């Protein structure tokens, strides 16, 4: 019996193509500006040195294009994710938020801003409070582990990040964190998590460094390094329940499901990502701004010309979407981890392999397989000790 089966997985047995793409997303990813004030060594975004801002007309078209039936459950997240969103300025951001006010006041949407925190001010905090914005901050750990986050002069951004976090804390604005882990930091899970917990962070998502877009840093951990990191993260989480680690929680929630629920297929989120000019790509935010001789610009449509739902509905006619479906079915037929990850991310397949029909990626190994295997390692060790 494999390690995966011992943790309660049932490897997929059917190669039959199943309905796979949802028409209603859980979130819309919006690019208020292409500009970022930092030049992080592992950033995937092209043209992040250019200031190209979303207009209120694009924001209005997005808001008007949200169907009355959305969301069918919960709230629809409107995720403002740059460049660095705060470089657009408070006044311009207010103009972008205004078209969504009817939906926000009706409880149908929630604004989320993912920021590097270096530009947070009292004025920004006023905006966060006024529009009930959920704030996500990108920081990788203590100063020596945040060295990849530098400005365009190559100067460390850590002190400015911490100053922004302190301002959020002073205004009692809660925040979550996304931390990137590379090879150099993969053996330091407890230090990273201790640091983030001390900041008052209640929830952290760990992104193992990935080969995407323009990232030439090449700091992707090996599966063994990642497995060690996740083992330590599970043990840390067990001892420190006050801060949740996204990947740990996702696996434990999955394993808590009834076997029939684990085996059930899940519709893949189309993840509409809308650029500053209204261009919309599907399946992966990292495809926005990417260019390919085979797939061109990945743009499925523009919200200034077509309603958002019409853009999503034409997904089946896009070559990269069709190929991603093939890749998912290949994963379903061959991979014992599929029931948990459901095929993972389209962007990783493309940027690692140049095609969407590929199956296993480094992201699969470090952020899915290694997480499962780490928990199996802990269970095995404890069983042996008994």
From TrEMBL:
The keyword Iron applies. PROSITE patterns: RADICAL_SAM. GO terms for molecular function: iron-sulfur cluster binding; metal ion binding; oxidoreductase activity. Residues 22-244 form the Radical SAM core domain. Keywords: Iron, Iron-sulfur, Metal-binding, S-adenosyl-L-methionine. Pfam families: Radical_SAM (PF04055). The keyword ATP-binding does not apply. NCBIfam families: rSAM_phane_AMC (NF041718). This is Radical SAM core domain-containing protein. CDD domains: Radical_SAM.
């Amino acid at each position: 019996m494999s390690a995966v089966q011992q943790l309660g997985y049932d490897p997929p047995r059917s190669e039959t193509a199943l309905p796979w793409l949802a028409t209603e997303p859980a979130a819309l990813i919006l690019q208020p500006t292409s500009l970022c004030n930092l030049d992080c060594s592992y950033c995937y975004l092209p043209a992040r040195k250019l200031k190209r801002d979303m207009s209120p007309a694009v924001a209005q078209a997005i808001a008007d294009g949200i169907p009355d039936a959305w969301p069918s459950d919960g709230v629809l997240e409107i995720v403002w994710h740059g460049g660095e969103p705060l470089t657009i300025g408070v006044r311009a951001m207010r103009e972008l938020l205004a078209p969504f006010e009817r939906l926000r006041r009706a409880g149908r949407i929630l604004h989320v801003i993912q920021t590097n925190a270096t530009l947070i001010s009292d004025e920004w905090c006023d905006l966060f409070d006024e529009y009930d914005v959920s704030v996500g901050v990108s920081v990788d750990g203590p100063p020596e582990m945040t060295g990849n986050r530098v400005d365009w002069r190559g100067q460390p951004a850590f002190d400015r990040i911490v100053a922004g976090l302190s301002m959020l804390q002073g205004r009692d604005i809660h925040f979550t964190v996304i931390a990137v882990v590379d090879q150099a930091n993969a053996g330091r899970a407890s230090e990273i998590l201790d640091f983030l917990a001390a900041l008052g962070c209640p929830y952290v998502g760990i992104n193992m460094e990935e080969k995407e877009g323009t990232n030439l840093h090449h700091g992707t951990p090996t599966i063994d390094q990642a497995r060690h990191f996740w083992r330590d993260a599970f043990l840390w989480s067990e001892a420190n329940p006050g801060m949740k680690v996204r990947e740990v929680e996702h696996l434990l929630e999955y394993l808590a499901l009834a076997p029939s629920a684990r085996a059930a297929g899940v519709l893949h989120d189309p993840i509409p990502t809308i650029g500053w000019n209204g261009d919309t790509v599907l399946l992966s935010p990292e495809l926005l701004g990417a260019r390919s001789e085979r797939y061109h610009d990945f743009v499925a449509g523009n919200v200034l010309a077509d309603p958002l739902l019409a853009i999503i509905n034409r997904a089946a006619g896009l070559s990269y979407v069709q190929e991603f479906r093939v890749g998912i079915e290949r994963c379903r037929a061959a991979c014992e981890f599929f029931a948990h990850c459901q095929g993972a991310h389209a962007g990783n397949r493309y940027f690692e392999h140049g095609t969407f029909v590929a199956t296993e990626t480094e992201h699969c190994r470090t952020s899915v397989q290694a997480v499962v295997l780490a928990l199996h390692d802990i269970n095995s060790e404890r069983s042996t000790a008994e």
